[in-house]
């Protein structure tokens, strides 16, 4: 789907293939990226506004999560804005959509920033929708030979720091949490920044029902879990063409994805919920993570870990804390969970991706940048 040449250009820190698991990741060695069994991680790096840490743990047979940190130019113009871009792409039914987003979303952000002569919520929204249309075009082209592509999708969480302003965009159920110093309490408080789109939330079910008044089965409680059309928990995503365009909800798509009646308008949406706010000196760090982390840790628990532990390896520390909680829920030890291989591991926890971005306010508030451009990609399988 993406040429080998293109991947070499855009992926300086890609996870190796499953056959090479346990070995370090080629060019990634130079960037401090490592693979160890089911782990992929970069313990500490420098972005234009401070330090960052990344970690991924695999649970599925094929890792469906992709992620990235891009720091430097936020547009195609030589004198355009500088900043930091963070992306968490939690795929489902396969890695193709999350990989595609990793390859194209940031480029679309830069293109629209150039066209609009600056970063804005509108730029981010346009980039999401352009990436969606590009992926659906791939689905259409491969429909007869790979119809299962119509069932592949991905949640998409993005954070952008540009000109002292923070943009958080989300489609799906990944989450961004800010650690903010409360001067009166003298402690760092958790502030959730992203809006989630999961049918388990009553507000999401209400939104779906109000936008699909003619469909009493738009959300269905199935095995004690609320699902859109009884099929999927998230109400927004990139991909999932089978719930966006009725022409993809038919043979030769697998029967389990097909609805009995054609639909008149998209069931799922790709538009993100977007928050825009200025950063201030009290803002200490940001935690971006797929829902696998938040199923096991509360916002404040995650913030407390980042506040009290060293920066080096902090993303791995958060993932391990979540794994310990997952093991405890199943009345087992973390040491026993570590012995469970991918695939079977999915019965105990999801793929988990975490990126922690520290905020150095003097760097955020200045107008010039001298740090080198960085591009770090995490997760996935280089040979798929």
UniProtKB/TrEMBL annotation:
Start and end residues of each PPM-type phosphatase domain: 48-359
GO MF entries: metal ion binding; protein serine/threonine phosphatase activity
Cross-referenced SMART domains: PP2Cc (SM00332)
Catalyzed reactions per annotation: O-phospho-L-seryl-[protein] + H2O = L-seryl-[protein] + phosphate; O-phospho-L-threonyl-[protein] + H2O = L-threonyl-[protein] + phosphate
Keyword field: Hydrolase, Magnesium, Manganese, Metal-binding, Protein phosphatase
Pfam family, one: PP2C
Protein's UniProt keywords contain Manganese: yes
Record's GO cellular component terms: membrane
Origin species: Cinchona calisaya
EC number: 3.1.3.16
The protein, known as: protein-serine/threonine phosphatase
Keyword Magnesium: yes
Family, per entry: Belongs to the PP2C family.
Xref: Gene3D superfamilies: PPM-type phosphatase domain (3.60.40.10)
Cofactor: Mg(2+); Mn(2+)
């Amino acid at each position: 789907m993406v040429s080998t040449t293109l991947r070499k250009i855009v992926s300086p820190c890609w996870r190796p293939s499953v056959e090479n698991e346990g070995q370090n990741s080629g060019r990634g060695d130079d960037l401090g990226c490592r693979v160890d069994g089911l782990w992929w991680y970069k313990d500490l790096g420098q972005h234009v506004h401070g330090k960052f840490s990344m970690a991924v743990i695999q649970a599925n047979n094929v890792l469906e999560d992709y992620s990235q940190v891009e720091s430097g130019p936020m547009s195609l113009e030589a004198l355009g804005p500088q900043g930091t871009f963070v992306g968490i792409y939690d795929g489902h039914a396969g890695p193709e959509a999350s990989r595609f987003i990793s390859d194209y979303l940031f480029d679309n952000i830069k293109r629209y920033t150039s066209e609009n002569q600056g970063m804005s919520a509108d730029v981010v929204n346009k980039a999401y929708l352009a990436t969606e249309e590009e992926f659906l075009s791939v689905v259409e082209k491969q429909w007869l030979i790979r119809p299962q592509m119509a069932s592949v999708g991905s949640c998409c969480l993005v954070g952008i720091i540009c000109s002292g302003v923070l943009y958080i965009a989300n489609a799906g159920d990944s989450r961004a949490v800010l650690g903010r110093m409360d001067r009166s309490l003298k402690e760092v408080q958790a502030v959730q920044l992203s809006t989630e789109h999961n049918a388990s939330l009553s507000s999401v079910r209400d939104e779906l029902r109000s936008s699909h008044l003619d469909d009493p089965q738009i959300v269905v409680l199935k095995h004690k879990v609320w699902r859109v059309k009884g099929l999927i928990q998230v109400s927004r995503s990139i991909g999932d063409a089978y719930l966006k365009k009725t022409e993809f909800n038919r043979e030769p798509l697998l029967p389990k994805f097909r609805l009995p009646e054609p639909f008149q308008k998209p069931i799922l949406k790709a538009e993100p919920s977007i928050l825009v706010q200025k950063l201030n000196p009290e803002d200490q760090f940001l935690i971006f993570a797929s829902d696998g982390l938040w199923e096991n840790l509360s916002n404040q628990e995650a913030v407390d870990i980042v506040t009290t532990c060293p920066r080096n390896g902090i993303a791995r520390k958060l993932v391990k804390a979540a794994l310990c909680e997952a093991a405890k829920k199943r009345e087992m030890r973390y040491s026993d969970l570590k012995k469970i291989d991918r695939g079977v591991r999915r019965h105990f926890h999801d793929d988990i991706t975490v990126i922690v971005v520290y905020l150095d306010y003097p760097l955020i508030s200045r107008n010039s940048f001298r740090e080198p451009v960085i591009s770090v990609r995490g997760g996935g399988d280089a040979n798929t």
